[in-house]
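Hi R.,

Here's the chain you asked about this morning:
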Amino acid sequence: MDSIEQTREAKSMHTTSIFFSDTGLVDAPVFDLHDLGVGDVVRGPAVIIDQTQTIVVTPNAAATALSSMLVIDVDNPPAAHSDAVVEPIKLSVFANRFMGIAEQMGRALQKTSVSTNIKERLDFSCAIFSADGGLVANAPHVPAMLGSMAFSVRWQIEHWKGNIRRGDVFLSNAPAAGGAHLPDLTVISPVFDEDGERVLFWTASRGHHADVGGIVPGSMPAMSKEIWEEGAIIESMKIVEDGVFQEELLYEAMVVAPSRHPGCEGARSFQDNVTDIKAQAAANQKGNNLIASLIKEYTLDTVMLYMNEVQKASENAVRDFFKKIARQKERSVFDAEDFMDDGSRIKLQIRIDPETGSADFDFTGTSPQAYGNWNAPQAVCNAGIIYTLRCLVDAEIPLNQGCILPVNAIIPEGSLLKPSKDAAVAAGNGLTNQRLVDVILKAFEVCAASNGCMANFTFGLAQKNGFGYYETIAGGSGAGPWWVGEDGIHCHMTNTRITDAEVLERRYPVLLREFSLRRGSGGEGRFRGGAGVNREIEFLIDMHAGILSERRVFQPYGMAGGLPGARGENLWLRHNGQVINVGGKASCYVKAGDRMRICTPGGGGYGSPEH
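And here is the predicted structure, written out as tokens:
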């Protein structure tokens, strides 16, 4: 191997203009290869030529001449990147890099968690946020979580302003602090600059914990009227401070505090909560490390530039959609409403400005908050809007804060979609948000109604060393102008798995007796609605079971002449032969040998069946 006798800067012949993707158009010196002596260094950007070749030295590289070769070092510190040129290809690269970071966070969370709900059902979401808490990118996890997490991040930023240090990690689940419902615990971590002085980004992970205390195992009570009945309430906690996990503080909040309320217990599987929260913090740290690597690779200025441009691209796509649909429909006002099974109304008027591509989503006329737990916090409403717009945009854009910027949401205080701080909300994130999506799609006349709920099913033991299990059950999706509805699918705001039968029966004292498609439950039409499912579980010991579901009264409607999908049905099959219809929302104390049979709704059909 040749050695470098002396390192010195080479002299160029002249300059030429070269376009580099990282810097734009720059003047680069040109060197003759034969004029370079041993030890001469050519720093990029530059060009080295001879009679048979042209060697381009990129801005981040340096070429050193040896006696018989050039050695190009590409590990030099990156040059400053110009913000004058935003390249479409690089914009796509950054959008996918940001999303890739969130996906790797999710894989880390799944691998290090222990609960069935997170490890097996994948009931979690991970995302990256800007310094001010705006959603930058997310992995394709659970839409109900992704569109609402920005509220939690921003609440923590404001709450801890001036008291945020490297090594801190925050925990929250309270709807008043941007949460959705209490089982969804959000872990939030700051990403600092190299000096530890300025927050550049935030990473966050939200996971549905199978039990956080309250009046029933599973923390999804069918009959809760106030939020304290649903489990531990944490507005804000430094769960990690100066790098130290605060387990005693967490025990007080999740086990001791809930048990002070009448009829309530603390978290029934606290060690699972601890392990999964640590897994969420580890997932955030994975994201922090990857963001730091991205900045090192491209420089902070470039990463920030493309972060803003990725959000701007999503915003422009949504504005273009609003302008396009106003032209196609030849109107700028769109109305729709639908009713929950208790008669509560969700009323929406969308008013589009065809010039700017902005829109008012006005929910005036929506019913007051319910004396029940299907109230949906404002963050959940935001999630429904941002998810639906992402579905409607005919372009490959990431779901981020840009999607919601053209929207002005008008939500009446004290309504079903913006309840008071003390209102019960357990089912709002699993039932009302699904109906909200149907209403938005109905306003734009996009497709028929889907099954309209997540069919939240829980069971467990309410005692010391007890447990709680939670799952959501699929249904049929609505048909559209050129597609049939999907059978047995977690649609819209949920994107989780069902627990494998082997895992369910190994970990819990139950048997899965049936899990099948509910044939004929999809609405007929030119395009048929998707079929719901039948799920029947037998209990091997005495325990508590509960169901929170919708579309047991009002059928999922069809569109353009299509017929509605079948209503759902929940049956308690007692060991003595009795069959009891428990309705859409019920809490039961089941005996060994009893079964619960849940039949989920089908989707509505589209177009007249006669065509």
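One quick note: Residues 72 and 458 are 62 Å apart (CA to CA).

Cheers,
M.
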